[in-house]
Amino acid sequence: MLDQFTLSYREYGVHLNADNSITCLEWCPGVQGLSLVGDFNNWNPNSHSYDELEFGKWKLEIPPNEDGSPLLKNGVVYKIAVKKNDQIFEKLSPWTTYVEKAKTNISVMVFYHPQQPYQWRDHPEQPYLPDNNRSLRIYEAHVGISSPEGKVNTYRAFADDLIPRIKKQGYNCIQLMAVMEHAYYGSFGYQVTSFFAPSSRFGKPDDLKYLIDEAHGAGLIVLLDVPHSHPKNVEDGLNKWTCDDGGYFHSNARGYHSQWDSRLFDYTNLETQRFLLSNLRYWQEEYKFDGFRFDGVTSMLYHSHGLGDCFGSYDDYFGLNTDTDSVIYLTLANYLIQKYHPGSVTIAEEFSGMPALCRPIEEGGQGFDYRLAMSLPDMWIKILKHQQDEDWNIADIVTTLENRRYAF
């Protein structure tokens, strides 16, 4: 059951079958109807309507054309028309795998099925996965800003120009930021709108596969930055998919992060769990990522999102402020990542020092391999740039270096 549940990305969304028929499946509760619209039917919301199933699910089967070709050709632009309160709203499927900006600057789904699928290479040496006696040396990278020419760089240019340099400098791991499609480029990818779509700003999906293939050929691990904590609150994506504040998110004030201007997932919702856990497996199985850096974990762990908390005692970690729904989700995510891809690396961006964050799940921990010590770079930059050697405060340095609790 878990296997099928976490492979839901193969069923949900819009899929081309071997006989050139097309199957569409969505979860969209509380609406009057769904239909597929695009250039192929002159954007007519009455042309290709979904059938309503149980539990808020909708399904559409489209047979091949008379000549045997699929209705949706590679590169065709389309959206899903959602009807609610007798109004039609054009939306992106939560499960869409490729999104582009149209000339009107509105995001549209693109049916991406090249005639020849990407052929992964067999590498004689698999990427180095460290054991407990060795450490990762991580090169954090944003593909778009990696060019010295002052332009938005591409996946392929990064692979050809940067990977040899990264390898030569002694790194054994690349952490890629801003891969999932996001509405605002300046957010560094932290306001995701389409979780299954690699950003089209840097190239096609196969270009990202080429980058990862080249990195593996150089013996490098590739980690994906995963913002499962705060998707963007614009309608040009997952937000308001059901034409209200609910869907995959909490429908009340708990569903909004006021400081980050973003939405917050309802981790108790079965369909949210399906979506997020399938998302992790999708990136590992379709793109061969070796693991993840989970962004904003502190914000997930506490109802206060860690804002204004001092974390001076164990009471600050284990109390009513702890968001147990998020703790359970993160633990389950780590369990499934290791179950289906043993040896994967998971890193938590977490600054509170939550005890047992990186202890094994069977010991009661959450199962992360590493905790990203966010404050260390800031501390060293501040000291080296702005303080004389004799002004260094050793007590402050030790406190920052030891910012974690026993059983960490």
General description of the model:
The protein folds into 2 domains: 2-110, Immunoglobulin-like; 138-401, Glycosidases (TIM Barrel). It has helices at residues 2-6, 155-168, 205-217, 270-287, 297-301, 324-340, 375-386, 394-401, and strands spanning 13-16, 22-27, 33-38, 51-52, 57-62, 77-84, 87-91, 99-101, 107-110, 138-142, 173-177, 180-182, 192-198, 221-226, 256-257, 262-263, 291-294, 345-349, 370-372. The mean pLDDT is 91. It is of the alpha/beta class. The protein is built from 8 helices and 19 strands. The protein is globular, with a radius of gyration of 22 Å. 23% of the residues lie in helices and 21% in strands. One of its GO terms (molecular function) is 1,4-alpha-glucan branching enzyme activity. This is Glycosyl hydrolase family 13 catalytic domain-containing protein.
